[in-house]
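[[Encoded backbone]]
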Amino acid sequence: MTKASGVSALQWLFLALVALLFSASAAAAQILPENQSELAIEYTNSQQKLDLETAKNLPSTDWRKLDTDRASFGYTTDEYWFRFKLDAKPYDRILHIAYPLLDELTIYVMQSEGVRTYLMGDTIPFSDRLIPTSEFAVPLSEGTNGEIYIKVNTQSSMRLPIAVRTEVGFFETQMSRRIAEGVYFGVLLCMAVYNLFGFIASREPEFGVYSLYTLFFAGLMLSLEGLGFHYLWPDSLYLQDKGIPIFGSLTFLTAALFAYQLLELKRYRYTWGRGLMVMAFLAGLSLLIAIFANYRVSIHVLLSLAVPGCLFLLVVGVYMWRKGFVYARIFTLAWCSLLVSVVVNSLGYLGIIDSMFIQRHAIMIGSGIEILLLSWVLAVRYSEQRKERLQAEQRYNRELEESVDERTFELQVALRELQDVNTELEQKNTEDPLTGLYNRRYFQQHLERELRRTLRRELPLALLMIDVDHFKPVNDTYGHLAGDQILQQLAKLMQQHAKRAADIVCRYGGEEFAIILPETDLQEAETFASQLLETVRNTEFKTDAGLLKITLSIGVISTSVRIFDNVDELFKAADDALYAAKNEGRDRLAVQ
């Protein structure tokens, strides 16, 4: 393999990246088709398995509204039920559930003539599916109306993107997705074959290991997308159940061996090499668990290995980059791409994020880029080895480049440390030292920002001004230390009560606090304040002087009932409400 090999790899990379971009665009285009209906879906969950009659007879309070047509609850042992009403249409439709990794899926279509029941899931042979797709789909004939119930049990992540589409819309969606997947797996196959030929021609073991890595990654993606069950093992329920943890473990095993060979760690850095061998051992252990344990255990083991494994490979790449290895740069960029996609996909499976495009295509895009870059780095590395043997005079330039890289890295570290110090100083400047809450300065700045956003977007904004009742006698009777202890515990209690990330709790001064509640109308703010009053009223605060109780007076105001042109008007209204609560007897809330 000569210098032309590097050029050839670069051409491969360019063409494949273009194909991947086309693939991603096609996939993105089918995520929100115009012919998808918006369904008013309700859901409930139970630790016990329910039958249809029991689910239908549940009180309405047990059913909660689903904000979108995409349910995502992470890993759970609960059984989930979903229901929605379907209006009649003068054409055939398809109920489409665009997630392939559900163990048991039962769909009940309630009709005047009876109930049509569809048993689905990847614990049932693929040939039993009414519509041969890697996801789940049920035909709805012309005029079908009534209520639809869906029951789901799964050891995988509890995710249920539900759509009712026209037949044309469904098959257009499927075609767009199959094109994107065809391009993606075509790229993987080309890379596997290309590097297999590289191994045959050069006898370099990293080419063979990388070819296996690509094939195992393809197996992992086929399992994730349900395509393996569709096309390769439709009758193997065992492989469908174990495919993700088995192929995932094999992927990390070959990744560790590939990095060990590629970066020549046995020669240059034995400690890092031992770390990769530990990673390979853990991947082998994960493989054994995947073969013998149930899916829920094995997938959590795999996810626990995925992120730290990628991080370790990234650290090794950065280290070798600093040592001046040109191909280590590409290696590092490749693993950065995969790491980001693994983290995003893991967060999606755990129910932390709710974006079906990110969850379903993050690994596809990230891994595609990573595999192309690693294939390129193999050619670059092989070419560099030949150059080192033939052109000894270039060593001095490489040593100089290494020195520049080290100084650049050190400068980046110094700048990062300076940035961290500045961030810490800024945090201390906006933090109350006693309670750890935001201080009065931050309160005024943030309230002004929120009010501007409220006026611009025409959203409600609520403000609560809070005062501890008769706090001075507490200090006079039990001492300021006891008073400080009460304030600290009260601050934690209010932070726990303000559950949304956008809710801001501040210490305004002394025993006075403020809570900013964005996108909250007056009724919601009153409910929040009433619950806070009740919680504080029933709480005993532990102090050096013993258990003490306090009460609060709260002034509540919201822009949902009154327009405020500036912060001063908003603050004065809340403060007036606070004093009204105090004048009316304390331990209560008042609304201005």
Notes: The CA atoms of residues 349 and 581 lie 47 Å apart. Confidence is low (pLDDT under 50) at residues 1-37.
